[in-house]
Amino acid sequence: TPVGAIPEILGKGRLGIEIPLDAPDHAAAAVRKFITEWRDGDWQQDAIARQYAQAFSRRDILERYRALFSA
Fold first, then answer.
1. pLDDT tens per residue across span 49-66
2. CA angle (37 as vertex; 28, 18 as ends), nearest 5
3. Looking at the whole model, is its pTM more than 0.85?
């Protein structure tokens, strides 16, 4: 759902998609599309991991958790 920082986290479709809460047909279509892409070899694990690492630095994430839990 497009709530809070979710759209930013998904990276405009690179790391996931948004589906409206009241649209199960959209969710089903997205799952079918993902399964087809996976079967066709379109999901390259290394490429996805690199995109995620570029978008979310492990060091930055750990620092945010430290700040959150030490407050």
1. 888 788 778 888 899 889
2. 45
3. no
**C-alpha 54 chain-centroid distance:** 13
The pLDDT of residue 69: 92
Exposure letters 1-31 (e unless 16+ CB within 10 A, then b): eeeeeeeeeeeeeeeeeebeeeeeeeeeeee
Which ranges of the chain would DSSP assign to H, the alpha helix? 6-10, 24-39, 45-55, 58-70
Burial class for 37, CB neighbours closer than 10 Å (0-12, 13-18, 19+): exposed
Query: Which amino acid makes up residue 27?
Result: A
Condensed to tens digits (0 to 9), the pLDDT of residues 17-37 reads 777 888 899 889 988 888 898
Cβ pair 26, 19 in contact under 8 A = yes
